[in-house]
Amino acid sequence: MENNLPGKILIVDDDRALCELLEEDFNRRGHSVWTALKVVDARELLHQQDFDVVLTDLNMPGISGIDFCAELHGNRPDLPVVMMTAFGSLETAIAALRAGAYDFVTKPVDLDLLSLSLDRALQHRHLQEKVRLLKDQVKRQRSDDEMLGESPVFQNIKEQIMRLANLDISVLIVGESGTGKELVSRALHSQSQRSEGPFVAINCAALPENLLESELFGHVRGAFTDARENRKGLFVEASGGTLLLDEIAEMPLALQPKLLRVLEDHKVRPLGGSSEIDCDVRVLAATHRNLEEAVATGRFRSDLFYRLNVIQLELPPLRDRGNDILLLALQFIKQLSKRFNKSVTGLAQPAAARLLAYHWPGNVRELRNVIERALVLTHHNQLTIEDFPEQLRRPNGVTPLPASLVDPGSILPLDEMESRYINQVLDQLDGNRTLAARLLGVDRKTLYRKLKE
Q1: What is the domain extent for residue 412?
Q2: What is residue 127's predicted lDDT score, i.e. its pLDDT?
Q3: pTM to 2 decimal places
Q4: SS3 for 104?
Q5: Is 143 within a domain?
Q6: Number of folded domains in the chain?
Q7: Cβ proximity of 184 and 149 under 8 Å
Q8: With the CA atoms of 85, 88, 94 and 97 taken in that order, what torsion angle do they form, in degrees rounded to the nearest 10?
Q9: What's the CATH number where 330 sits?
Q10: Could you tell me which residues come within 8 angstroms of residue 11 by beta carbon, excluding any fewer than 6 positions away?
Q11: Spatial contact of 219 and 233, defined as CB atoms under 8 Å apart
């Protein structure tokens, strides 16, 4: 009987002769086989490498096969376990299945029947693996749809997110306002093992100290005037998931020791309470401020800073992301056009050039607001420069033409004015002639001719 789905099989049995017989038969059927005469040896092998199926005896010295199966099922629920026993009974079979066994066979072993059982277990294992890979793919696609960007600096951020997602440690996310710190936090959560749990975010700057303490840690009835009933608090509500502490630099100094204790003990004491509550939560923190400077000036505790700053993820400003500006703009146009029932399909070329040249102090948030405003106002099927606010309609997209170029005390010939203006645009674009031509509304040949002249 030929096996169509080879796998890695671990045999755990204290009968050496049976192990050798099974190993020889499984190898002939195309499987890769490892054997362990003791559970302790099996644990070591399971720690060293990944198996597709475990075949274990029911009665072994030191620990029963039922207990070993329950241990495996608790640690690796995706790993099918087939149990063998010389004492086949309904009670034994039920006990094995309750312990998480995939199948149950009796001794003396019929090799063909055992092979069929292993084939089913392998198919189950590979199907589970396919489902897991598809779920991971969906997670990545969902994250990629939101985390749009092809620039090297942003690709680096996405790679870091993939590496950090399943490391259950604190991450401090820093970057200018509007760079997408909460979006990155959600990506870390959605790609992690906690993705099925809640994602909870709170802005530490949005609430006064007494309310912030109650929101985070909860309170018991009667803890203060308006406490009419018990409240869990966000640490408990986010248990099993992720809690984002946004604007962490604004956390009141008096609350910082209590936050530190929760992070270290994984227990929270509600306001006015006498007992602690366990909370299993991953904490992410975000800020646009310099926390090291806040520590140096005494506005932020150093021990809390080090506890939160296990890994720091620094987000790039939008102005450093190049063509990501246009990718994001087109994505916002697509999303918002549906909302406003508009038939806008893209950007006119001069408008795209202005977006690329602008310095975006408000980053992605500002870009979205600009696109939203433009979509509301436009009468065209593409956004034009006239649809943008004043700061983007300026000729160079950054600042008005300097007064020195139009000093009434020194009237210059038109060609000299043009030359100075072209050179100023090139300076601001770091010599990028292609983009300069687009900004100036001329083709590259015309720009090169004017530069030569």
Answers
A1: 403-452
A2: 74
A3: 0.59
A4: strand
A5: no
A6: 4
A7: no
A8: 30
A9: 1.10.8.60
A10: 19, 22, 23, 26, 33, 34, 35, 36, 55, 56
A11: yes
Residue 242, H or E segment: strand 242-246
Residue ending a domain, choose from 316, 348, 370: 316
> Residue 154 maps to which CATH number?
3.40.50.300
Both 23 and 120 in one domain: the answer is yes
**Residues lower than pLDDT 70 in the chain:** 1-4, 88-90, 130-146, 222-227, 395-417, 424-425, 427-430, 438-442
Joined together, the tokens standing for residue 74 give 């608790």
CA angle 16, 77, 1 (to 5 degrees): 50
Q: Report the pLDDT value the prediction gives residue 248, as an integer from 0 to 100.
A: 96
Q: What per-residue confidence (pLDDT) applies to 134?
A: 52
**Beta-carbon contacts of residue 2 (< 8 Å; ≥ 6 apart):** 29, 30
Residues 6+ apart with CB under 8 A from 116: none
Token digits for 171? 């991450």
Contact call for residues 373 and 333 (beta carbons, < 8 A): no
**258 and 183 part of one domain:** yes
Please indicate, yes or no, whether residues 70 and 166 belong to a single structural domain of this protein: no
Same domain, 323 and 312: no
Same domain assignment for residues 68 and 216: no
Q: Which pLDDT score is estimated for 439? A: 62
pLDDT of residue 21: 92
Which amino acid does the sequence have at 428? Q
Same domain flag for 25 and 163 = no
Q: CA angle, 318 as apex, 247 and 248 as ends, to 5°?
A: 10
Within 13 A of 309's CA, how many CA atoms are on the CB side?
16
Nearest residue to 167 via CA among 74, 259, 242: 242
324 in the same domain as 290: no
Contact 86, 57 (CB under 8 A): no
Question: To which H or E segment does residue 368 belong?
Answer: helix 363-377
Q: How high is the pLDDT of residue 179?
A: 94
- In this structure, the answer to whether residues 328 and 444 fall within a common structural domain is no
Report how far apart, in Å, the C-alpha atoms of 329 and of each of 183, 240, 403 are: 17, 36, 32
